[in-house]
Write a structure and sequence with these properties.
Blueprint (H helix, E strand, L loop, with lengths): L1 H22 L7 H24 L4 H23 L9 H22 L3
Helix pairs in contact: 1-2, 1-4, 2-3, 3-4
Length: 115
């Protein structure tokens, strides 16, 4: 869980940069930043799924995993429907994706630190 939390933290930093870029007036972030964000998040999700399947996760970790899966589906949708087609990213979708991911990250941190 700790390694997954680190990867998700790095992905969150990239996500915040992308949000600032979008709200700064650009229609979408650079491709390399979006792909790096997705890669880090996917790696964290993979580690979290592996932990769930082998050692098990506490309840907060399970909740985080569920929300991360939903956030990942939303991120993939944003990427495939908008970013890959060079369309402006809809701010509402970005906000929903971010809220899901941040909530999941807080739950994961609570699980890692034993709350």
């Amino acid at each position: 869980m700790q390694a997954a939390a680190i990867l998700f933290g790095l992905a969150a930093a990239g996500g915040m940069i992308m949000a600032f870029i979008r709200w700064g007036g650009a229609p979408r972030p650079p491709d390399w930043l979006a792909m790096g964000h997705g890669l880090l998040a996917a790696a964290g999700l993979t580690l979290l799924i592996q932990a769930a399947c082998t050692t098990g996760l506490p309840v907060l970790g399970q909740a985080a995993l569920g929300l991360f899966v939903i956030a990942a589906l939303g991120g993939a949708f944003i990427n495939l429907r908008y970013h890959a087609r060079q369309l402006p990213l809809p701010k509402a979708w970005v906000v929903v994706h971010a809220l899901l991911a941040v909530t999941a990250f807080v739950l994961l941190l609570a699980a890692v630190f034993g709350y």
